[in-house]
Amino acid sequence: MNICVFCSAADLDDRYTTPAREFATLIGKGGHALVWGGSDSGLMKVMADGVEEAGGRLVGVSVEFLAHKVRPGVDEMVITKDLAERKAELLARADAVVIMVGGMGTLDEATEILELKKHGLHTKPVVLLNAAGFYDGLKQQFQRMEQEGFLPLPLADLVFFAQDGVGALAYLEERAGIDG
After folding, report:
1. The domain containing residue 104 runs over which residues?
2. pTM higher than 0.90 for the full model?
């Protein structure tokens, strides 16, 4: 399975790097590929290192203005002209999407992926990996959107909230068996 992971390029503490490393190892040992933003810094580097060390493939999709930060020696690297093209390319190459901790860019990617899914423009499973409760507030907001009628379909049909990498990968593998 090609698993697209949206996450931060910032250097973060163990609350976030430890779960990322564990999830990356599961991806690699499971024979899956990491499809990610291509950066060789921060949480993106932690994920790429873990997947590579565990024997998985690395497929990077970067953007021209960040091309100087790409990870060398990956299985495949694509450079897009802008962020919109990058998001489209990441989704096109993915069988599933996992949203990990991150800043504005990660939040932008998450909301776009969920908006596209809401409108039926893709049916790929989407997981929010809620390391250290990072997305508790967003989960609460999504639940409010659902309760107050802002979502045209159940929240559970849009996104699965996983507390750890084991739960995230189990959900994706189960969905792949159903959808794939």
Report:
1. 2-179
2. yes
